[in-house]
Amino acid sequence: MRFNLSEVNELIRSRRTIYPEQFSDRKVHKEQLENILTNAQWAPTHGNTQPWRFHVFMEDGLSTLSSFLGTSYLKITPKELQNDMKLAKLIRRPLLASAVVAVSMKRQIENKILEIEEIEAVACAIQNMHLSCTAYGLGGFWSTPKLIYSSEMNDFLELEEIDKCLGLFYIGYPSIDWPTAHRKPLEFNTKWINK
Ligand SMILES: Cc1cc2nc3c(=O)[nH]c(=O)nc-3n(C[C@H](O)[C@H](O)[C@H](O)COP(=O)(O)O)c2cc1C
């Protein structure tokens, strides 16, 4: 065994979504974020395209993100579908976090690798971030409000039209007991083929 498997199992299985409403005021350090993002970069990537891009919002940047989310929600959402509670949540959440990372997929101009595979690579990077947060005792929340797929979001992050923001990843120390969860038994989703 090259690593302590019981610790690896424990880390993977205790990774949990912890929402910004459940964060405390304790701040995450930039060095921790650098380590979390460095681990993200070690995700697998077909053709080594390394398609992930990170925009890290901290301190006053969190208000910038909050304002953007509020304004663009009202701009993009048809009046009859606008929901005050949703809007308030969008605006409030960045202000409750210690940091928010917008994680995006940068499409290669040559398009050699299928888009779905570039998206999969970025999803793996987000999982690495979340596992690293878990190791620090930090809560993480992968949020995907519809507006992250809009051209407004791409403009905000200075991305090209072919690129995609795949999530807002909220980070903060939890103010709650670490949540528990369960998964279906393996028999439910696994078929063994021996012949
Ligand atoms: C691609 C993706 C998008 C997600 N988007 C949201 C979201 O917009 N809002 C939300 O509450 N949870 C979101 N989640 C988190 C899931 O709700 C969460 O992973 C699920 O409830 C299982 O909980 P766990 O992460 O603690 O295992 C997302 C997860 C993934 C993989």
Describe the 3D structure:
The protein has 195 residues and is an alpha+beta fold. It has one domain: NADH Oxidase, CATH 3.40.109. The chain is 41% helix and 14% strand. The protein is built from 6 helices and 4 strands; from the N terminus they run H-H-E-H-H-E-H-E-H-E. A 4-stranded antiparallel beta sheet has the order 1-2-4-3, with helices on both faces. The two termini are 29 Å apart. Bound molecules: flavin mononucleotide.
Secondary-structure map:
Elements (H helix, E strand, L loop, with lengths): L4 H10 L15 H11 L11 E7 L1 H17 L7 H13 L2 E7 L9 H22 L2 E5 L7 H6 L7 E9 L23
Antiparallel strand pairs: 1-2, 2-4, 3-4
The structure holds flavin mononucleotide.
Question: Key terms for this structure?
Answer:
195 residues; binds flavin mononucleotide; 6 helices; alpha+beta; NADH Oxidase; 14% strand
Distance between the termini: 29 Å
Classify the secondary structure makeup into a structural class. alpha+beta
- As residue ranges, the low-confidence spans are none
Overall pLDDT level: 98
The CATH topology annotation reads as: NADH Oxidase
Secondary structure: helix percent: 40-55%
Count of structural domains = 1
Q: Provide the CATH top-level class.
A: Alpha Beta
Query: What is the number of helical segments per DSSP (H or I, 4+ residues)?
Result: 6
The distinct bound ligands, ions and cofactors come out as: flavin mononucleotide
CATH architecture: 3-Layer(aba) Sandwich
The shape is globular
Order of helices and strands: HHEHHEHEHE
As a percent range, the share of strand residues is 5-15%
The CATH homologous superfamily is termed NADH Oxidase
